[in-house]
Amino acid sequence: MNTEMARTGNLQLMKEINQALIFNAIREKGPLSRSQLAKDLRLSPSTATVIVDHFIAIGFVKEVGKGDSSGGRKPILVELAKDAGMVVAIDLEQSRAAILNLNAEFLITKPIPAIKQGDLIAILLEVIHEMVRKIQGPRLLGIGIAVPGIIDPNKSRVITASSLNINHLSLKEELERHFQVPTLLENDANAAAYGEFLYGRSQNVQNFLYLHVGKAVGAGLFLSGNLFTGGAGGAGEFGHISVDESGPLCHCGNIGCLGKLIGAEMLMDQWRSWTGSEDVPSLAELARLSNEGEFHALRLMDYVGEMLGRGIVTLVHLFNPSLILIGGELALNNERLFDQVKKQVKTRNMRVFSEHVQIEECLTRLNAGIIGAGSLALNHFYQNVSFEMGDRTERAHHD
Predict the structure, then answer these.
(1) DSSP character for 114?
(2) SS3 of 227, please?
(3) With a cut of 70, which residues of the chain have pLDDT below it?
(4) 63 and 118 co-located in one domain
């Protein structure tokens, strides 16, 4: 009896492994023929055909014409049906929600209303329900949330997100209870780094940093091809690197923290002080004014660029990345800031490091957080693909 159970379990495991191999091969390299899939994955033609036909039956794969042939009938090609499934993506720092298809393309976006203390879950439930009702057809496969704060190592709770006044909130449990799909939580900068790794400028780059410079400052670290979150889930708190020993006291207890010095609140106060005006531009407008040569904006960007550069110098010496991607409202389209950052890195780093690293804008731009959040949910689905064989009802099984 035990032997039979083990045999059945092993067969089921092999089916799930083969399904995942074929599904991801089609997703990454399609259009492909069934025979090419069998050859590339070293599977029997019958195994590849049965699994592909099942994917077609449940709507996740479609036939797209015929390929070339060296003789005989031309093979029929298949590719991912990108609109067969969808994920919800939420960026709490940008107060935006979206639904993405299987290629991480936007199907719908929606702003998240202002969040008052204690009502985050209720607001998210309403926003998600409304978006899902509008998109009929695709199956909901997961939810990804980018949080401007620290997530616990088990990725189940928000330990703290000071800008949202959140502490020890079990977001994952509540959303999974309502929607019955996996919910993935991650720090917003980490999520953005993940999105850039899968869909942005850092594809195939094993060691890179993503830096967010907006209302707050943060970093996502990709080391040896993996997102590094640290022992307590708090790696990448770039905003709490001390860059000015005579600077103000930060709420973390440190002096001269980068996030305190170049955060939105401090910059707005500095603008008011220099201009004497209460009419304060947005962060994106500050970047635009700087590009247009406005004196106070240039002065402010020189300061931000120097402070940011000091922090980046520390990261370059610690991690020796090949690439640094910078995003966020203040950094994007900001020539002066980038010039200052590159100057700091060139003059303050050891030459072997400064010549090795490239500093560029992130490709996903202001969508970095939300694409990153969706990427978390999509990748979880792709890594845990398991479709019930034997009928035409699709079931996604997740560990």
Answers:
(1) P
(2) strand
(3) 1-9, 71, 117-118, 388-399
(4) no
